[in-house]
Design goal:
The complex is a heterodimer. Chain A is an alpha/beta fold. Helix content of chain A is 39%, strand content 22%. Chain A folds into two domains: 180 residues, Thiamin diphosphate (ThDP)-binding fold, Pyr/PP domains (Rossmann fold); 136 residues, Rossmann fold (3-Layer(aba) Sandwich). The termini of chain A are far apart. The complex binds thiamine diphosphate. Thiamine diphosphate sits at the interface of chains B and A.
């Protein structure tokens, strides 16, 4: 166990898996120099045949990944910013997510698509989207969104042993955040949530970038005598509903926090599923904290108005679990 | 259009505009380093001749689409220095109200459809603007600026095809500045970019993008042809990016992708120096040049003072403009 930065943890997981499995290749724009930091040193270690610095050609990259994966390679396709997933989206939506199904299960597509998603750094609308709901709606891809370096390592390792397309979406601008990372072969099975804080009054489910403000919100709520159970699903597809419903069984109240736009967000999906499967557990209406249905603006003043921070999470919790909210909602 | 048609008066005007862009960009580098800007900036230093030489032929009714490195294109076609700088500062009086920032500066009233955060994103937009100009029966043209890196997006092929097929009034200006982000062009780009026009039967040409006279001449010819119904042209402007891909890149790159000596060597033929030599050759009085520079310096200084003091947007503005 040692303290490492998020990008280091991802880098370590990739390097260990490449060492273990010679069929893994990496491709992406500037992966040799790695402005993000997560593919740093790989070309020196594994050579240019396995680490391919690509032209700026997302549509062929995302499609090449499918072709190469169907024919014997295990492919890491680094798409840099999440918004460039859109540029390469055709092969993702029409090939990667469907080919195995359409061919009646004849092929496996072991692909790890990587990208940084979300805003908060004044890079404006074309570099700040959170597209995990869009990807979730494809049905045929798995999605991991680690919020801590240790989780990142374990999830990347699991993703690189999975025989399906998996998206690793890391919160942009958070690559430098440090956390404990277990040494060696540390694997977290896909689809396993973690309760980052235990509590009895309210369940807060936070995704990816929203875990950090949610932790801060939990601290603030604790000072007000409200104990929140914070669930980090870590994997969006498959989603660990057992963990969410298990927490809800204790609390009876649910707030879901997502940096995606609210309409058809993963928060919406979780809320709908909980309403279907756990309606009897609910003592209060479910609250979603998400981005309103606008693009992400550049000016920090505007961006702050749009992206949820810890105060908005506290506010949503108080609405359903504060003394006022608790009285109103039993 | 031959270089000989460029009068010395016009050359001085082009130089002044290039000097303005350089001054804005150098100042942005300073304030970025001082932490005064909210977001990242990709500077145009070293490529000024391209935007200025091309836009000299355009009216407010002609359209341009630009790139993430778009301040120069904006300033070559719009006089709104203050609104550009205020936008990069994220202020309410910025040209996009602070919504877009550096990568999205646009002045639609001046025919600027905007910078673009998506590499290659402007190519199809400009092709559409050309379609519009043609369909509405105007003599207007659309020009798209894009990088050598963007030339590797499949959309270039699709646009070349449809523009050739429909004889659209489109000029595709590729700025080959030697780098596709942090990769030297030759390591990610096969063949020569201007030759990509040939199979579509439209003219393609390499141009010395550091000599504003050459840019002016080649662009003038292509734009004239497009206006007259002669269809599209692909110009490859050979130039060099003197600053980093993005300011402060050394703070996050673990290794360098070019040497300082290379940059210094390329500085010898940078576009302002080339233009200055041409002005001297044309016997323009040093006083006239200095006066033009002073005027630009003052305007840029005023724009930065204005922007730094400009009010922030109201938070509610974040929820406007999604739909018409
Ligand atoms: C679709 C897309 N892919 C990747 C990027 C990230 N990116 C921004 S600028 C850039 C390099 C562009 O190179 P080039 O087109 O040559 O323009 P230059 O930066 O040299 O002006 C890259 C890869 C992006 N913005 N959009």
């Amino acid at each position: 166990m040692a303290k490492k930065r998020m990008v280091q943890a991802i880098n370590e997981a990739i390097a260990e898996e490449m060492e273990r499995d010679p069929s893994i290749i990496v491709m992406g724009e500037d992966v040799h120099i790695s402005p993000v930091g997560d593919t740093r040193g790989l070309i020196e270690r594994f050579g240019a045949a396995r680490v391919r610095n690509t032209p700026i050609s997302e549509s062929v990259m995302s499609g090449m990944a499918v072709g190469a994966a169907a024919t014997g390679l295990r492919v890491i396709c680094h798409l840099f910013y999440g918004n460039f997933i859109y540029t390469g989206f055709d092969a993702i939506a029409n090939q990667a997510a469907k080919l195995r199904y359409m061919l009646g299960g004849q092929v496996k597509l072991p692909i790890l698509y990587m990208a940084m998603i979300g805003g908060g750094r004044s890079v404006a609308a074309q570099h700040s989207d959170s597209m995990h709901p869009l990807l979730m709606n494809l049905g045929g891809v798995k999605i991991v969104m680690p919020a801590a370096p240790g989780d990142a390592k374990g999830l990347v390792k699991a993703a690189l042993r999975d025989d399906n397309p998996v998206f690793l979406l890391q919160a942009a601008g958070r690559g430098g955040e440090a956390g404990e990372v277990p040494d060696g072969d540390y694997v977290i099975p896909l689809g396993k949530a973690e309760e980052k804080r235990a509590g009895d009054d309210v369940t807060v489910v936070a995704l990816g970038s929203m875990v950090k403000p949610a932790l801060k919100a939990c601290d603030e709520l604790a000072k007000q005598g409200i104990s929140a159970s914070l669930i980090d699903p870590r994997t969006v597809v498959p989603m660990d509903y057992d963990a969410i419903l298990g927490s809800l069984r204790r609390t009876g109240r649910l707030v879901v926090v997502d940096e995606a736009r609210k309409s058809c967000s993963v928060a919406s999906e979780i809320a709908a599923t909980v309403a279907e499967r756990g309606f009897h557990l609910l003592k209060a209406p479910i609250r979603r904290v998400a981005v309103e249905d606008v693009a992400i603006p550049y000016s920090p003043v505007l961006e702050k108005a749009v992206i949820p921070g810890h105060q908005r999470i506290v506010g949503a919790v108080l609405e359903i679990a504060g003394s006022e909210g608790a009285r109103r909602h039993g | 259009m031959s270089v000989q048609e460029l009068t010395s008066g016009k050359l001085l005007e082009l130089y002044g505009r290039m000097f303005r862009i350089r001054t804005v960009e150098e100042r942005l580098a300073q304030v970025q380093a001082a932490g005064e800007l909210p977001g990242p900036v990709h500077l145009y230093i070293g490529q000024e001749a391209v935007a200025v030489g091309v836009c000299a032929h355009l009216s407010d009714q002609d359209w341009i689409c630009s790139t993430h490195r778009g301040h120069g294109h904006f300033l070559a076609k719009s006089d709104e220095i203050r609104k550009l700088v205020a936008e990069v500062y994220g202020r309410a009086s910025g040209v996009c109200g602070g919504k877009g920032g550096s990568m999205h500066v646009a002045d639609v009233s001046k025919g600027i459809l905007g910078a673009n955060g998506i590499v290659g994103g402007g190519i199809a937009l400009a092709t559409g603007a050309a379609l519009s100009a043609q369909t509405r029966g105007t003599r207007n043209v659309a020009v798209v600026f894009f990088g050598d890196g963007a030339a590797n997006q499949g959309v270039l092929l699709e646009s070349l095809n449809v523009a050739a097929l429909w004889k659209l009034p489109l000029v595709l200006v590729c700025e080959n500045n030697g780098f596709s982000e942090f990769s030297p062009t030759a390591t990610v780009t096969a063949g020569e970019i201007w030759k990509r026009a040939t199979p579509f039967g439209i003219p393609g040409e390499p141009v010395d993008g550091n000599d504003v006279r050459e840019v002016w001449s080649a662009a003038g010819e292509a734009i004239e042809r497009a206006r007259g119904g002669g269809g599209a042209t692909l110009l490859e402007m050979r130039t060099y990016r003197l600053r980093g891909h993005v300011e402060a890149e050394k703070s996050f790159l673990a290794k360098s992708y070019r040497s300082d000596e290379e940059v210094e060597r390329r500085r010898e033929r940078e576009p302002l120096r080339v233009a200055l030599a041409a002005l001297r050759g044309a016997r323009i009085a040093p006083d006239a040049i200095a006066a033009a520079e002073d005027k630009e310096r003052a305007a840029v200084q005023a724009a930065f003072e204005y922007a730094a003091a400009a009010p922030w947007p109201q938070p509610e503005a974040a929820f406007q403009h999604m739909f018409a």
